[in-house]
Amino acid sequence: MRKSYKKFMVKELEFISSTKQTIKGREWKDESRKEYKGIVQIVHGMQEHIGRYEDFATFLAKQGYIVVAHDQLGHGKTAKQKNEYGFFAPKNGWQYLVDDVHLLYKQEKEKYPEIPYFIFGHSMGSLIVRTYLIRYQDKLEGAILSGTSGQKSLLRTGILLTKLLKVFKGQKYKSELMEYLVTGSFNRKFKPNETNVDWISRDKDTIQFYLKDEDNGKKFTLQAYEDLLKGTLFLSKQKNINKTQDIPIVLFSGDKDPVGENAKGVIRVYHMLEKANLQDVTIRLFKDGRHEMLHEINKEEVYRFILNWIEKRIKVL
Description:
Elements: E1 2-5, E2 8-16, E3 22-30, E4 38-43, H1 54-62, E5 65-70, H2 76-80, H3 93-111, E6 117-122, H4 124-135, E7 142-146, H5 155-169, H6 176-183, H7 204-212, H8 222-235, H9 238-241, E8 249-254, H10 264-275, E9 281-286, H11 299-315
Parallel strand pairs: 4-5, 4-6, 6-7, 7-8, 8-9
Antiparallel strand pairs: 1-2, 2-3, 3-5
């Protein structure tokens, strides 16, 4: 299926996951162009889908970039095929998420072998990208990490709890307790609250669009939470971070993002990457911004910041 938006096209794509499932995705590009500046691959966050990146992808496409993204296992159109929202795989789910990032990269790189390639990850997607940069050595010109987490405490406790609950409830059970423990505290930092997701953005329209979209907020299964916590634990260890591919990396976040502990966690990740002796690591904190800077009241400023960062890295190639 193709949708025309003036000069550029939005095309549906798909590939076969490491789990043998069909992964649904999308490509945005201006087909009137003879050459493209680069490719940006987007890895979305927890309990959302690639449709939420339409505005950002359109912005980049108009600037001469090809943008690709996929609905990850347990999310969006990929999950809808078998109604498996919030479930990655019976085991090794985190590794499958990481492998799928590589599979889409490989598919796009074969089509556009000479174009500079950047990868963007938001929230859980940023954790997946960080793991990908450790597990794979794909040729990349840079990585953009949005709303990442530097969580270190209580990860092992959370993993033990999910394993215990699975014994009694099964791996596909969706636990209110785990939802509360992982994300329940985020909204308490913002008062008065109008919704249960005020923590994602100050923009009221963003909040309403999020709540009205039935593909958002799908609860995770116990197995998915175990996978997420194990992935986060892996990234909490400096010995693993030391294996990160040495490419330009930028971290950005709102300084009121509870996922990043109001910037403390993001700064922690920045220092870990510095300690790994990476040559080009940048951090940007946006004043009063919450979790989703791409959907904040100053999103145009954020878009421009990302574009400028990418284009500066292309110039030095």
